[in-house]
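Researcher: We plan to redesign the surface later, but first we want a full-length starting point. Tokens attached.
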């Protein structure tokens, strides 16, 4: 049994020795072939890049591109040969013993590998990359000492698998996430953490507050590498982030976790919620009175779908609105259109403020400034009296409603052509508190009060004259009715009583006409209780005066 076990161990040992010999012979050739393939690929990519830089490629341009590419290729090959001679050939020349040469090579790998990682990552990670590099080289060395190449395969590689498995599990815990069920996002988070432990990470930015514009770099990194991706931008659920490559907008993305590519970094975070802004606008009324008006502006990124005709009109005004006829991101609580957000952010690159402390007007400040200017012009069209009582005033008219409608109508289209919707813009308060305004205001108020007093006096005079005229017309109307009634009564009595003396007829008809006139006052006369009582007393007096009156017989 012992002999059988020993034979099995011997066979395994023989297989390992044979495999190590083959790998020692084949791996350098495999490494050489890989280097040649990579160099050819680099040569081809470099040649294509040179060709793209030629505005009008021709034979001379192709020759120049090829010559520069070959020059850079020669430098790269020279560097690679020097490294190969330093790590592989020099130890064998200096030391005849192969084991000693291998130890020298491992020392070179330690020093060269850790030194390269340290100088590449010390700016953004300190010693983190060196520690990771030292761990990997040590694990490889342990496997090499136990069984050369086979030790690396069966000892070092499993240790690396365990290390990166737990690194993957750790990434699912510590790296921010938007969709935990998305395996692509999980893979990106794992790659980010892997480059982080090597010290070669891209930056990680975080938008701290709901109202912040700029993202803070929590973990620094170099965005100008072609490896080390992805970086991360983490935004709130109500925010999207405009991403730039330095010279132009790259894209708009978010909310949640945003993975960045080389050269990409956050430009500005945009709040998708309804924006409410107030400001104090200095205005002068049409009649020359300076004052301040409190302006309220309510707006947001436009989320409504556009009709085809409206989209064509807005697209002509702003070419950045291509494909902005509807929102293209509907996940989450806030839907938005990337093109509309890009159009809003593009305002900042061309709009400048005259204030020295600010060099850029942000998109929401631009909207407020535009509404302020329009409100100032609209207020200058109204006198001070019209701010409280507009022309053609009725009982249910608010003059500020008309001013608000005019402000919104004048700026709504211009604001919407930049992907922003103006919900409301109105004046909500007035202030008359500056010293200069008070001086002019006091004089203007005196003039205004004098004008109003004259207007009131004239109105009262017109009312008195009109009232007197109505009274005279009412009296004349009453007299004419009385005379008409008397005349009618005389005619009727003369027809019925031909022999009745006319003086008695006149007296009787006069009393009856007066009684009817007192019972039915004219429409212009007041019918209060006192007048009614007075009229009743007069009627009773007339009745008592004729009780004992006897009409003589014929």
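Model: Full-length starting sequence:
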């Amino acid at each position: 049994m012992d002999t059988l076990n020993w034979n099995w161990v011997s066979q395994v040992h023989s297989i390992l020795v044979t495999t190590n010999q083959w790998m020692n012979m084949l791996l350098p050739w495999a490494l050489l072939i890989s280097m040649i393939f990579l160099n050819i690929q680099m040569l081809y990519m470099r040649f294509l890049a040179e060709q793209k830089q030629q505005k009008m490629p021709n034979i001379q341009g192709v020759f120049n591109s090829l010559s520069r590419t070959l020059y850079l290729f020669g430098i790269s090959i020279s560097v690679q040969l020097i490294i190969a001679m330093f790590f592989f050939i020099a130890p064998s020349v200096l030391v005849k013993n192969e084991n000693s040469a291998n130890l020298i090579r491992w020392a070179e790998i330690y020093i060269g590998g850790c030194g390269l990682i340290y100088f590449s990552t010390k700016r953004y990670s300190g010693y983190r990359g060196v520690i990771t590099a030292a761990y990997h080289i040590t694990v490889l060395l342990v496997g090499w000492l136990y069984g050369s190449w086979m030790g690396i395969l069966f000892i070092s590689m499993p240790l690396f698998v365990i290390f990166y498995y737990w690194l993957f599990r750790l990434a699912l815990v510590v790296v921010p996430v938007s969709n935990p069920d998305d395996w692509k996002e999980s893979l990106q988070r794992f790659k980010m953490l892997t480059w982080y432990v090597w010290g070669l990470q891209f930056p990680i930015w975080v938008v701290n507050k709901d109202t912040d514009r700029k993202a803070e770099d929590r973990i620094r990194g170099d965005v100008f590498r072609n490896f080390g991706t992805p970086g991360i931008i983490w935004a709130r659920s109500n925010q999207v982030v405009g991403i730039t490559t330095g010279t132009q907008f790259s894209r708009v993305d978010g909310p949640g976790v945003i993975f960045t590519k080389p050269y990409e970094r956050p430009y500005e975070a945009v709040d998708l919620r309804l924006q409410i802004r107030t400001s104090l606008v200095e205005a002068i009324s049409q009649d020359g009175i300076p004052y301040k008006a409190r302006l309220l502006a309510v707006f947001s990124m436009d989320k409504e779908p556009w009709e085809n005709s409206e989209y064509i009109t807005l697209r002509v005004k702003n070419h950045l609105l291509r494909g902005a006829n509807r929102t293209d991101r509907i996940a989450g609580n806030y839907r938005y259109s990337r093109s509309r957000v890009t159009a809003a952010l593009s305002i900042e690159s061309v709009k400048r403020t005259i204030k020295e402390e600010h060099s850029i007007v942000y998109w929401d400040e631009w909207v407020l400034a535009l509404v302020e200017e329009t409100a100032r012009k609209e207020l200058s069209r109204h006198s001070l009296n019209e701010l409280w009582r507009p022309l053609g005033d009725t009982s249910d008219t608010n003059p500020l409603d008309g001013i608000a409608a005019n402000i919104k109508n004048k700026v709504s289209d211009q604001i919407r052509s930049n992907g922003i919707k103006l919900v409301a813009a109105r004046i909500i308060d007035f202030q008359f508190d500056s010293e200069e305004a008070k001086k002019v205001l006091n004089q203007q108020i005196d003039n205004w009060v004098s004008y109003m007093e004259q207007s009131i006096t004239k109105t009262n005079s017109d009312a008195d004259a009109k009232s007197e005229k109505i009274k005279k017309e009412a009296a004349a109307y009453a007299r004419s009715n009385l005379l008409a009634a008397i005349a009618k009564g005389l005619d009727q009595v003369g027809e019925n009583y031909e022999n009745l003396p006319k003086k008695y007829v006149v007296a009787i008809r006069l009393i009856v006409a007066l009684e009817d006139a007192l019972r039915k006052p004219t429409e212009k006369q007041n019918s209060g209780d006192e007048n009614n009582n007075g009229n009743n007393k007069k009627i009773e007096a007339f009745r008592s005066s004729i009780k004992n009156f006897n009409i003589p017989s014929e």
